[in-house]
Write a structure and sequence with these properties.
Elements: H1 8-15, E1 20-24, H2 34-41, E2 49-56, E3 60-67, H3 74-80, E4 86-88, H4 91-98, E5 116-119, E6 128-131, E7 137-141, H5 143-150, E8 153-155
Parallel strand pairs: 3-5, 5-8
Antiparallel strand pairs: 1-7, 2-3, 2-4, 6-7
Length: about 160
């Protein structure tokens, strides 16, 4: 089996002594959706969380980490982040702003720390999956460890 290269997100967790597991999956460039990732992992899509970066009209960039089967409610996201309105960050801005690409955006280890909001259902599980920072690799982590590590707030977003 090929060795799994450690991503920046994995190195940061390791350095902090946070327990996690790197889990590879087969990438389909034509389908980067969370349900495809979940199917590859053999896990329920509700346990595979996607990392969305949004821009608020008042407070700039922030992150919503939510189950793969949900869509972000922009009104709620704006409210919890202290904005009047917000929109998804354009895909062309993702790499320069976060250091990550679409389909490989991790809530861990962005270029600069951003306010992060994790959907409350994460707490229903012993572990959830989030991107390890590249396509084809997920981090399996206890949600409370992730929340503590990134300094996230829990919200019904």
């Amino acid at each position: 089996m090929a060795s799994i290269s450690k991503t920046n997100a994995a190195r940061l967790l390791e350095a902090a002594g946070v327990q996690f597991e790197l889990v590879p999956y087969e990438v389909d460039e034509s389908n980067l959706a969370a349900d495809h990732v979940a199917a590859q992992l053999g896990e329920p899509v509700e346990q595979v969380f996607k990392t969305l970066v949004l821009r608020g009209d008042r407070n700039g960039l922030f992150v919503c980490v939510m189950p793969g089967d949900m869509e972000v409610d922009l009104k709620v996201a704006a409210k919890i982040s202290g904005n009047k309105s917000c929109a998804m960050l354009h895909v062309k801005e993702l790499l320069p702003e976060t250091g990550y690409i679409r389909g490989g955006c991790s809530p861990i280890g962005m270029k600069k720390p951003l306010p992060t909001f994790i959907y409350e259902s994460a707490l229903l599980y012993d572990h959830i999956y989030v991107s390890a920072g590249i396509r084809g690799l997920q981090i399996k982590i206890n949600p409370e460890d992730l929340i503590r590590f990134v300094g996230a707030d829990i919200y019904p977003i």
